[in-house]
Every structure is written in C-alpha cells, then in structure tokens.
Amino acid sequence: MDSLDDVDLRLLALLQQDASRTNQDLAAAAHVSPATCLRRVKRLVDEGFIERRVALLSPDRLGGSLTAVVEVTLDRQGAEHLQAFQQRAVADDGVQQCYRVSAGPDFVLIVVVRDMAAYHALVERLFTQDANVRNVKSFFAVERAKFSTAISF
Question: Would you indicate the residue range of the signal peptide (predicted)?
C-alpha cells in the first residue's frame, strides 16, 4: 500500500461502489482530471490492485439460490492432498469461494447453487467421490443480512 496515495485510494473506493462509471464521472467524483483518472486506473490495473471488474447479479431476480458455508476436513493433509482437493473445488462452478484455513477444518467453501438438488450433485462430485474427504459440515443461509465485495483500507 506504500505506493498508493489519497487519489488512488479515492479511485479504488469509488470503483468498489460502482465500476461501471464512465471515466468522466469517475474523475469528477475523485476530483481529478479525466486524463489523470484514466492513467491512475490503468496503473492500478497493471500493478494488480484491481484484479477484475465484474457485474454482481441478484440471485432473487434470477430465480433464487441456495447458499451454504461448508467446512471440509480431509483424512490426509499432505501438501499434494490439500492441493488436489483445492484444485477440484476451485474448478467447480458451484463453489464461489474457497479458503484453506487453520485451525479446525482444512477448507471453508462458500457454495451457491440453484437449489437442494444442485447442492446434492455438488456433494456427490466434490465430497462423496473423494475418498480423502473425512468430514463435511454444511451451514445453509436462511437470510442474507449483508453481502459486500468491498475491501476497506
């Protein structure tokens, strides 16, 4: 963060709120010229501060979804076993987020699927067919009180 100044931080905060702003609108909101804004945002992308720009979809408008927080404990925790499970989890479309954690389970997954049938299919793909998965504990969301992708700095 040493290479970020107040203008960079303002731009990052504004882009986290709405990345679809035009360069003109973003520059005005950040109180910089459009040329400065364009140059700064390009540098933030080039240096990896901005990984990507995406659209956040509304699960309710798309017919709903089932969200689960899933703890996964493996039987064998050697580096190759952890890596093998992680690669499979990351490749699955139903896994929205994958974290290797300590202490406790080996992984925590955030799973978002259409319904319980889709969740059962994911369970079969990722957990049941993997002889190295020792324990799975799933917590199903009944209400989404907060959802944010913003990083505070």
Answer: none
